[in-house]
Every structure is written in C-alpha cells, then in structure tokens.
Amino acid sequence: MTASAADYVWFNDYRRGWLSEMYCLTLIKDLTPVEFLSRLDADFQGDFTGMDAFAARDMEFQDSQDLYGDYMLVGAAPVLGPDGPWTLGVEINGTVGTDDQFMAVASAGTRIVSHYRNVNALTLFRWWEDGDLRTSFEWPRSRSGSTPDALLSTMSRVGYDLGADGPDPGVSGKFALAEELTGVRITADLLDDATYTAGIVTMPDPEWTSIIIDIPDANGGRICKKVTRQEVEDATRHHP
C-alpha cells in the first residue's frame, strides 16, 4: 500500500516532548540501536521505555547545558520493516540525523532516511545510501544531492504536487516519503511505546572562513577589519 501525506496529519497534534514542533526522525537499515549510536561515538545513557520517559530525560539533558547545541541527545529504538530490522532515531530539537558529517559515516553499507522540523517551522528531508547523500530538500522543487531527481515519481505518489504553484505537504509529506523509502510506518503508538536507547552526541565545531573585528578606537571612530581563517592559522603557526 502506498503511503500518503494524509496518513501522517496526526503528527501535527503529537505533543509528547514537543516533538511535533521540533523533531528529527531517522530510519537506519540493518543496524541495531547500539550499533547506530556507536557509529555516532555517543556516550550511552541507558534505556528509556516510552516517549514520556525519553522526553523527560531530554528535558533534564537540555536544562543541564549552558549553551544548547554543543551536544545532542539521540534516542534509538528497534523497529521492523517489511525487509527486516531498522532502527528509529529520535531527537527533540536535535540535528544529528540531518548532519552529513555524522550520517555519511553512519550510513556506510546501508540506507539512512531522515527528516526534521525546527521551532521556526524549517523542514528538511535527507536520504543517504552507503555514505552518499542521494537526495536532500527543504522545498520540494529545490533539491540537491547526487541524485536530486531520483524520488520525483515517489514524491508525486505520496502527495507532492511538483508543479510551479503546487502546495507543499510539509512534515506529513516527508513522513510519507520516508515510509516509501523504508517500508516503516511511524505511528503514535510506536513512538509512545518504544524503548529508546539514549546517547549523548558531541557536535563538531562549526566551520568558519572569516571573522569581522569591529571595535571603537580612542578617537570615537571604529576599527573594522576582516580576518580570514587562513590568516589566523598562518599566524598561529608562526607565533605559537
């Protein structure tokens, strides 16, 4: 049976842990939760039965951080697809499942499908195959990846209108597209009742290419200078 965006409108009202407002869901083929988290070099936190228990641990984790974003809590639960075992990765206000630095490594020898929504309603869909980011998009008519058009027929089938003025089914469409690629149907009961093996993932330092130094001088003016990353690295090598 073909998945449909209409099958997932229930998620708009799924309030456990604010998941519907800011989530990342990741499906990983043929890896156990422990194997998946190990590929992320996660610091294991134990098992939590049910979304309420996992969400409570996530709130405790987020409250303990001075600056949110340096670390993410990922829950991983076993799920079954028509072709065998999968792992479902769950993050509340997390981004690990859409980060190519993590998923290119985690998808070695397998398939990963992930989708995301942040508190500002930005959404994202990503599909990796054996380290290769095949298709990625926020807006369905603006796609990237090594095969950006590989899912066009599937997208149309689940409810995307790819015409110039076609509506975007948003989160519901991304759920349905993920189901078509994995065979795994996510339900409220599945999220509510799963046992989540949790791990804390250290996020990589963000890449930067330059900074702007803008400070007042002694005469009431300002000193403004652009400094490139290369200049900083060269200076560090010459003046350790």
From TrEMBL:
Pfam families: DUF6461. InterPro entries: DUF6461. This is Uncharacterized protein. It comes from Actinoallomurus liliacearum.
